[in-house]
Amino acid sequence: MTSSAPPTLRSAAARAALTVPGVAGLQPGLADRLARAATHAWPRTATRATPPEAGVRAARTPDDSGWRVDVRCVLSEGHRALDVAREVRSRVLSAAQTHLREHHATDPVTVTVTVTGFIAKAPGPLGAR
After folding, report:
1. What pLDDT does residue 51 have?
2. 74, 76, 102, 128 from 21: Cα distances, Å
């Protein structure tokens, strides 16, 4: 799927996903990771950090009847993946619909959330239990 959505739709979705407790970050898709790797070959084109919206793909549906938004999340250890994914889906859907309404669009939105991994909690001080 190409990311043909305006950057602001992807940004709105990324901001919404990152507000969910248990979301440690968003993982860029393959195209974004390859682009980032290529910047090492041309250092002057490198940016300092990968933007959060790199973990969000958004494009028109194949029949052009709406939008499909895919979010790739990395979760913090200790959170139930199903609960976090459902909350991410709910918040991203709401944010995408709000964004589209602000731009006078009423197209339907489908949101897919993929949990790509977990980040372990940092260990506490030595001797702490």
Report:
1. 78
2. 12, 9, 26, 24
Residues 62-109: tens digit of each pLDDT: 998 999 999 999 999 999 999 999 999 999 999 999 999 998 888 999
Q: How far is CA 29 from CA 56, 97, 99, in A?
A: 8, 23, 23
Decide if 1 contacts 57 (C-beta within 8 A): yes
Report the distance separating Cα 15 and Cα 75, nearest Å.
15
pTM to 2 decimal places = 0.78
How many angstroms separate the Cα of 107 from the Cα of each of 31, 61, 89, 103? Answer: 26, 10, 17, 11
End-to-end CA gap in the chain: 46
- Show the beta-strand stretches assigned E in 1-102: 23-26, 56-60, 67-76
Q: Which residue has the tokens 């372990």?
A: 120
